[in-house]
Amino acid sequence: MGIVVDNLQRIREECEVLKMTDKQIKEIMCRLHNDLKKGLSRADHDKATVKCWITYIQDLPNGKERGKFLALDLGGTNFRVLIINLGENHFDMQSKIYAIPKHIMTGTGIALFDHIAECLANFMKEHGVYEERLALGFTFSFPLKQLGLTKGVLQRWTKGFSCSGVVGEDVVQGLKDAIARRGDVQIDICAILNDTTGTLMSCAWKNHNCKIGLIVGTGSNACYVEKTANCELFDGEPEKEELLINTEWGAFGDDGSLDFVRTEFDREVDVTSINPGKQIQEKMISGMYLGELVRLALVKFTRMGLLFGGQGSDLLFEGGSFYTKYVSEIESDKPGDFTSCMEVLEELGLSHASDADMAAVRYVCECVSRRAAHLVSAGIATLLNKMNEPRVTVGIDGSVYRFHPHFHTLMCEKIAQLVRPGLQFDLMLSEDGSGRGAALVAAVACREAEQGS
Ligand code: GLC
Fold this sequence. Notes:
Catalyzes the phosphorylation of various hexoses to hexose 6-phosphate. The protein is of the alpha/beta class.
């Protein structure tokens, strides 16, 4: 017994590196704030790690948008095609998920766009709109330098994609070309947007305080409403006072500014990823990496003889075998109950785990997910303080936020502690931001075009 308690105690001590002190969190906020300012500034933008791309979306939905729209959603684990009917105070939506095979994720851009266009045409056939000419909003959740609402140049791939021939190119053109190569369907691409933007738009349709969109899913990123006067790179007509900025904060830390809180596990996740040195903050927060961070810690503690009697399993030692959904499942167990934890460990070939091992595994999960929630909170509090508005709603989507049992509560507590006194905020789950948001952006673009004509 003494040894067992000692092991758990030692694991707790080893996990101290995963905790960020208040002082460290304040320092992170300060650095992020500076990076946001650099991203927005004409002089520093090129050197900035947090790029703060201008989205060219200046109009939030006013609830009056109507009509039938198509949407594409590419950028998480799945690719989806949607058809959405916007009516008075309601909308109906049908969608289908298509797999993106690994060889396409890492193949050529042409093959990727051909695959997307094929899924789109099949979807239109299945939904009886193959012959119609429809407007489409394209949620493309990667860093884009937008040159307009329908023109966006890919800056880098993130989250496991690496298709050749797309970085530096206009993604809308890539999709148009693929549609033209088929020659069978008539589509007007009205807008290209990020998933954070879609999330914000979809919440703003109902809630006019929604001025931040956040994703904590496969990747992590946020967009927010900024005063046009602060966006030095905006070259459109400054008739609108505000515009939407896609921060691409996943790249925060790419210049070493998070090194003071990174651990050996973070460095290992980074060097074994397909984009070493890139998306450093994202690799500490998002669903693509949280499970792997936990796994690396468990491997270390097993090798130290502190877990599983020093006996691992082939799967435990295999990269990527500990899914992020396991973290959510394990933390969903009630205190003292290890039902889900046991199931996960059995799946990993660790059925010899003792109760003390399970308590330790759960502790490691808690440390990794808490740190992620605290980093996200630091980011949101930085944005809220910068915006300095009395009450802001944050629209949120993504598998980690949606399925982790404590992420929402952890964020509420931490943001409340970090935000300037007097500022109020609400965290709102966005129902299918990327899909509905894309249709809304397309609808707003049509609304504007009609009003303009
Ligand atoms: C990655 C992408 C970003 C996206 C985020 C969430 O960080 O670069 O564009 O918003 O993932 O999907």
